[in-house]
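User: My instructor asked us to take a sequence, write out its structure as tokens, and then describe one feature of it. I'm not sure where to start. Here is the sequence I was given:
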Amino acid sequence: MAPVTTVPRTADVVVVGGGTIGAWAAWFLRRSGLDEVVLLERETLGQGASSRAAGMVRAQGGTEAAVRLGMFSREFYAGQQDLLGIDSGFVAQGYFMPCFTDPEVEQARRRIEMQRALGLEVRWVGSDELDAMNPSMAPGQTLGSSYAPGDGYIDPPRNVLAYTAAVLGAGVRVCERTAFTGLLVEGGRVSGVRTSAGEVATPRVVLTGGPGLAAVGRAAGVRIPAGGARHQVVVTEAHPDFAPERLPMVFDLASGIYWRPCEGGVLWGMSNPEEAPGEATEFDTRYFELMRRRMAALLPTTGKVGLRKTWAATIDFTPDHLPILGPAIGPDGPIEGAFVAAAGGHGMMWGPGVSQAVADLTVSGTTDVLDVSDLGLDRFDEHGRSRLEPDPIALPFPEVTQR
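Assistant: Let's start with the prediction itself. The structure tokens for your sequence are:
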């Protein structure tokens, strides 16, 4: 079955956005028993942030919601081969979050206690043990670290291939190069969608869109405080120090730098919290050079080898670094049958969990993936400020969205 370029007249549900969230949501909705599931994508599947991500997958979140989404998604990726006959290339590499100050140690220990209470396999590792388990990292720099052996990474292009095969194999109607242009509402309830290829009558709609979600919301008459920000990733040349058995994954919260093995080298990424939000795909050499010094101090061999790949992509974020999962809210209140799903910059990390949760909400109004009672659009004020404390384990995105 090939993607279609015409839209059907009717559907049981329409999903807007063919990235990680939208595509897996469409697949979960089809598995729930809905017959006519339509997936709208303005360009082609995975053409946006999904294909340019770094693929980090961890359950070491800073809030219960983050941990539950991470655990669900990690388990989903690990079981894809048996479920689908194809997978997203998940590797359980093990993931460290080192501490450099006493307050960071205290925060990490409290976080580990919370994570363990939710069933996550995670433990505190002292500085000497961290050095022994990270032979390529400069020794004697940390006070210890949290460590989750089951955290790992996926291959983003393979993930796009996996969800493309999954939705097509499940019978989802994929409409590529078809833009969502509006929501049809009657009596406070969804009655259909407008698209660049015509209208589709439907009682259910799921709005996704990654960095473009705010624009999707505006087309639907829904204010969604989600933004886009530049994120940069590089891959170094190969070196024996970067052999996978010598290179667990690390997230340096102090700088927002993370790294993992990649094709014999190191893939590492960074975001500039002082940069204004918005569309940005050009590589910022100045900021890279600033972060490169920090990276060389932590992983010295990176300062001695060249780069094989560099790229920048616009990825999404929310003001509190938490997901958005709940009803769409228009000028007259919640719109029955319409739901919003955003991963807040964690599309690969939380994608399957967010997708299953929004599929559940769309079909039954509840979900067992996590408690979503505080994760809807109603947590934001008119300025996009959230009443929730932000997830402290996140990339350093801007604290305001572009309006």
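For the description part of your assignment, you could build on this observation: The first helix runs from residue 20 to 31. Try explaining in your own words what that tells you about the chain.
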